[in-house]
Amino acid sequence: MRKELVRTKQTLSEEKTQEILRDGVYGVLALNGDDGYLYSVPLSYVLYDGGIYFHGSPRGYKHDCFARTKKTSFSVVGQSEVVPKLRANNYKSVTVWGTLKPVTDLNEKLEALLAMADKYSKGVEDNEEEIQHSLQYVFMMKLVPECITGKEADEEVRRTGKLG
User: Which of 87, 90, 103, 147 could lock 140 by a disulfide, CB 3.0 to 4.6 Å apart?
Assistant: First the structure.
């Protein structure tokens, strides 16, 4: 798969790594595109029950790419701010490596969609109605993590930058 981080002092704690995954608004997923090209696509997601869930249309280019991708990586940036005087970026990010699996069980799909609605549209009255309406046709994939790493800017950038 891959080696551990070279700059181990920049490794985020598991707690902070999980926080970034839980609270992130979107991430970028690497998929197998056409003609040997990679297709990296920004996606909404939810971390739920040990997996990372994505949803979308059951047809189209993204769906086709999902269908031909088994092993992948997914990245979420939790913070990013340029520190001009250091020519650097004060960042925190997470990368997940794992296997994509289609979600075919309706109960698992329902639970993941409810978790996604809770993350992105909490308090919207017709969330459950909309989910029930789309449950049969919405396409859903689960990323089963095999390795998760969190990384942040080096100490000087963190000390000099505005973000913590």
Answer: 103
Model confidence pTM above 0.85: yes
State both tokens at 73.
């990586």
Q: Measured between alpha carbons, how far is 159 from 122 in angstroms, rounded to an integer?
A: 36
Q: Over the stretch 99-109, which tens digit does the pLDDT of each residue have?
A: 999 999 999 99
**CB-CB contact of 27 with 53 (8 Å):** no
8 Å CB contact between 142 and 53: yes
pLDDT digits (tens, 9 = 90+) for 86-143: 777 778 899 999 999 999 999 999 999 999 999 999 888 887 888 888 888 899 999 9
Q: Which residues make beta-bridge pairs with 18?
A: none
Contacts of 146 by beta carbon, 8 Å cutoff, 6+ apart? 1, 97, 98, 99
Q: Do 113 and 119 meet the contact criterion of CB atoms below 8 Å apart?
A: no
